[in-house]
């Protein structure tokens, strides 16, 4: 996994991606806290700055202005030590990330989580289909080197704990690179 021979002293940049509801923000916030990293929720950042280009009526969500988002994040990402949470991965420069986590969730769990979030009808079924089709996993595999992309289950609190352990272990090894 040795990509960067001089690890950033502020820590690695880690992208957490996956279908909405798979648990990105739950894992991302907890990881940032435990590993003293900076947490960036890209959806919230876009909302705060209104980095949108209109509204997608069919998918019932605003359309992200990728360039504005990437420009806004560039300096922070260069400093390292960021956990980025977004349901997409192909808008970011490949060089930003040392690790790309793709969270996966069983259909029944995901259905319940999204229903609890108030999703229904097409929006709910589109997201379930997105998970069944492995859309976010494929996107990550097409956008990043094979050894950078790691698929992790996110169904139970035990999964959350083992994912946190696994990423922190990966971070320890990452920090030893080049030393
Ligand atoms: P996302 O940020 O991917 O949209 P989230 O972190 O908001 O997802 O999580 C969606 C819901 O699922 C939320 O109620 C918390 C719950 N959840 C997340 N990870 C979980 C896990 N590993 N086990 C059980 N529930 C989880």
TrEMBL record:
Q: Does the keyword Nucleus apply?
A: yes
- Tell me which Gene Ontology terms the entry assigns under biological process: ribosomal small subunit biogenesis; rRNA processing
Q: Which reaction does it catalyse?
A: AMP + ATP = 2 ADP; ATP + H2O = ADP + phosphate + H(+)
Name the UniProt key words of this record, in alphabetical order: ATP-binding, Cytoplasm, Kinase, Nucleotide-binding, Nucleus, Ribosome biogenesis, rRNA processing, Transferase
Q: Where is this region: NMPbind?
A: 41-64
Which Gene3D superfamilies does the record associate with it? P-loop containing nucleotide triphosphate hydrolases (3.40.50.300)
Chloroplast as a keyword of this entry, yes or no, is no
Q: Where is this region: LID?
A: 116-126
Name the residues that bind ATP.
Answer: 21, 23-26, 117
Give Gene Ontology CC terms: cytoplasm; nucleus
Q: Which family does the UniProt entry place this protein in?
A: Belongs to the adenylate kinase family. AK6 subfamily.
UniProt subunit comment:
Monomer and homodimer. Interacts with small ribosomal subunit protein uS11. Not a structural component of 43S pre-ribosomes, but transiently interacts with them by binding to uS11.
Q: What does this protein do?
A: Broad-specificity nucleoside monophosphate (NMP) kinase that catalyzes the reversible transfer of the terminal phosphate group between nucleoside triphosphates and monophosphates. Has also ATPase activity. Involved in the late cytoplasmic maturation steps of the 40S ribosomal particles, specifically 18S rRNA maturation. While NMP activity is not required for ribosome maturation, ATPase activity is. Associates transiently with small ribosomal subunit protein uS11. ATP hydrolysis breaks the interaction with uS11.
Q: Which HAMAP family match?
A: Adenylate_kinase_AK6
Classification via PANTHER family? ADENYLATE KINASE ISOENZYME 6, POS9-ACTIVATING FACTOR FAP7-RELATED
Name listed for the protein in its UniProt record = Adenylate kinase isoenzyme 6 homolog
What is the species of this protein?
A: Bugula neritina (Brown bryozoan)
